[in-house]
Amino acid sequence: MPAPRLAEYSEAVRDAVTHTREVVTTLHAELARYELVVWTAGNVSQRVVVDPNAGPGDDDLFVIKPSGICYNELRPESMVVCRMDGTKIDDTADGLQPSSDTAAHAYVYRHLPEIGGVVHTHSTYATAWAALGEPIECVLTMMADEFGGDIPVGPFALIGDDSIGRGIVETLRTSRSRAVLMRNHGPFTVGTDARAAVKAAVLCEEVARTVHIARQVGDPIPIDTGHIDQLYERYQNVYGQAGPDPTKFEQPPRGSHPG
Ligand SMILES: O=C(CO)[C@@H](O)[C@@H](O)COP(=O)(O)O
């Protein structure tokens, strides 16, 4: 039985696809604006959410960048729509093929249902750490806030099949980090949506650079686990306009590590 074409999906799905393509196009421009990518390197995808109350499903779709297209040429209509097995919905993006990392993104969506966005970059400092195969130790409050601890390293994996996705998922199962440095390759980040994953990519490069600079001068001082937990809880629950008055946040009892 031939795979359904986008035209055969409901109007609600097609409207959600249109919105997701616009979001993913805008966020690719953010990777370039923050200088996290050069030429065609890197990619962004987002799960297509039709009913936020329905939760993720195996028949979800996701939108991802076409392979090898420069960032200034990306348009919503060039974004490729794929199924959760990574296959392309044929009547989308004309003859453009999806990113070479599509299988990796699809694997993450299938195995981490809470994830709604995936980003991959080759940002300089984070990729340098990936070349060393060395995790970035949690020595900055920004790392505790956003990553809840060290930024881990994932295994070396060839591109094009489930290997990278499997490495990302297996690494993140033992870490609450939203970033993983795939060895010899570069950072992959995840989030509840693509914007959260792009934020994680921006902050991953920022802390990779800062910790590298600190290590040129001396030995950065690790933050203890209890303080990492307190910083992570505050940032994830109160920071910005998301929570109650940040000046009145009750610190959780010491050592109450959530993981
Ligand atoms: O990391 C790699 C290749 O090593 C790819 O993600 C990167 O070049 C972008 O490829 P796509 O243009 O998304 O196919």
TrEMBL record:
EC annotation from Swiss-Prot or TrEMBL: 5.1.3.4
Keyword Metal-binding assigned: yes
What SUPFAM superfamilies does the record tag this protein with?
A: AraD/HMP-PK domain-like (SSF53639)
Cofactor list = Zn(2+)
Q: Which UniProt keywords apply?
A: Metal-binding, Zinc
Catalysed reaction equations from the record? L-ribulose 5-phosphate = D-xylulose 5-phosphate
UniProt xrefs under Pfam families: Aldolase_II (PF00596)
Q: Which domain of life is it from?
A: Bacteria
Domain Class II aldolase/adducin N-terminal span(s) in chain numbering = 22-212
Q: What class of enzyme is it?
A: isomerase
Q: Which family does it belong to?
A: Belongs to the aldolase class II family. AraD/FucA subfamily.
Listed name of the protein: L-ribulose-5-phosphate 4-epimerase
Organism, scientific name: Ornithinimicrobium cryptoxanthini
